[in-house]
Amino acid sequence: MHGPACSDDEDGGYGSFGNGGAESGGSMSVGAAELEVQLWRADLLTAVIEVDRHLAISRADTAAGLVFGLSSKAMLRKTVTR
């Protein structure tokens, strides 16, 4: 599996969004929520899904969960339809 996509930003994509973070000169308030987002370049992400003769998913790798937004275990025994 490939790592996260690279960023062309000078700070590596970890800049402030005007939320009062340390980079904007403010301070984080107590109890502030923090969110980490990992972005993947679509052309670098591949997934493998195996289906049986009835087009039911028999195996899906972890990357398939990233591509389709489900865990690989949740995809098992689901049928592939148009």
How would you characterize this protein structure?
The structure is a single chain. With 82 residues, the protein is largely without helices or strands. It folds into two domains: 1-40, no CATH class; 46-82, no CATH class. 13% of the residues lie in helices and 9% in strands. It is built from two helices and two strands; from the N terminus they run E-E-H-H. It has helices at residues 62-68, 72-75, and strands spanning 49-51, 57-60. A two-stranded antiparallel sheet has the order 1-2. Strand 1 (49-51) and strand 2 (57-60) form a beta hairpin. The longest helix has 7 residues, at 62-68. It is elongated and about 60 Å long. The relative contact order is 0.16. The model is unreliable at 1-11 and 15-22 (pLDDT under 50).
Lay out the secondary structure.
Layout: E1 49-51, E2 57-60, H1 62-68, H2 72-75
Antiparallel strand pairs: 1-2
Q: Flag low-confidence runs.
A: 1-11, 15-22
Give the total of domains.
2
Helix content: 10-25%
Order of helices and strands: EEHH
Biggest sheet, strands in spatial order?
1-2
Number of strands: 2
Beta-strand percentage range: 5-15%
What is the terminal-to-terminal distance?
A: 27 Å
Most strands sheet: 2 strands, antiparallel
Q: What best-fitting shape do the alpha-carbon axes yield?
A: elongated
Number of helices: 2
What's this, in brief?
This protein has helices spanning 62-68, 72-75; strands at residues 49-51, 57-60.
